[in-house]
Amino acid sequence: MKLYDRLFTSPVGAKMLMAVTGLMLTGFVLAHLAGNMLVFAGAEKFNAYAAGLHALGGLLWVARIGLLGAFALHVFLAVKLTSENKAARPVKYAHEATIQASFASRHMFHTGLLMAAFVAFHLAHYTFKLTDPSFGDLPAGDVYAMVVAGFSSPVVSAFYVLAMLALSLHLCHGVSSVFQSLGLYHGNLNPITDKLGPIVATIVFIGFSSIPLAVLAGIVK
Ligand code: HEM
Predict the structure, then answer these.
(1) Average pLDDT for residues 182-196, to the nearest whole number?
(2) Is the pLDDT of residue 44 over 90?
(3) Pocket residue to mutate for ligand 1, from 21, 67, 126, 156, most atoms within 8 A of Cβ
(4) Which is more confident, 97 or 81?
(5) CA of 122 relative to ligand 1 center, distance in Å
């Protein structure tokens, strides 16, 4: 079997690729969260961090292209696996056999769709600065002021918190499933891997949501 067939046309290969690209995206999310927490250290530290990232130049572009590739592959495989699953069972069971399946696992496609919509909005918001005219009045490179101005809108902040809920539900099931998809789900590893998803999900939800909430509460200003 050719490598392409093994990875893309066999469900096991596709699931392994989903797991690897999912891990890459989770790595980015955790690194982005750690960097964003510097907002609580004040404008100077946060802006210095953002400037440091931009100064990486070519290296930053390599990371961006890798991230975009992982995201595109993850979405492509999600659509492919979901449509194949539907085609294999066109008529729903009279009694859904999902009593054991959690809410998070049943809604991976929906929370994933919400994340894709969130990332599109987020890039338009903070990277391309297309959605908020007030950003035009801010000094160049003042990413701190941009974040504060962005989250001063309760509607924008509410959307971010909702998206973080979808992201954490997605990670809750996704992170724990990685081990199964990669064939690492053995014996006494289960109790640890089962808890890893909920732990990562909780950190991501509390961490990211704390930023818009802190801005609205006037703690970050
Ligand atoms: C409260 C939550 C978040 C805040 C405050 C935040 C903040 C930012 C800021 C300020 C930028 C632009 C940085 C710059 O150009 O200097 C950015 C870029 C980005 N963010 Fe976020 N972010 C948040 C959550 C997320 C989440 C949950 C994801 C992914 C699921 C994400 C994905 C990205 C991506 C892909 C970029 C573009 C990176 C690049 O240009 O290289 N962000 N974020």
Answers:
(1) 79
(2) yes
(3) 126
(4) 81
(5) 7
| Token pair of 207 as six digits | 């961490």
**DSSP class of 7:** I
Q: Give residue 79's pLDDT.
A: 92
| Among protein residues, the one whose CA lies closest to atom 10 of ligand 1 | 126
CA distance 15 to 25: 15
- Collapsing DSSP to helix, strand or coil, 9 comes out as helix
pTM of the full predicted structure? 0.92
Conformational region of residue 53, where left means phi above 0, alpha means psi within -120 to 50, and beta covers everything else: alpha
CB atoms within 10 A of CB 81: 16
| Domains of the chain, first to last | 3-92+102-216 (1.20.1300.10)
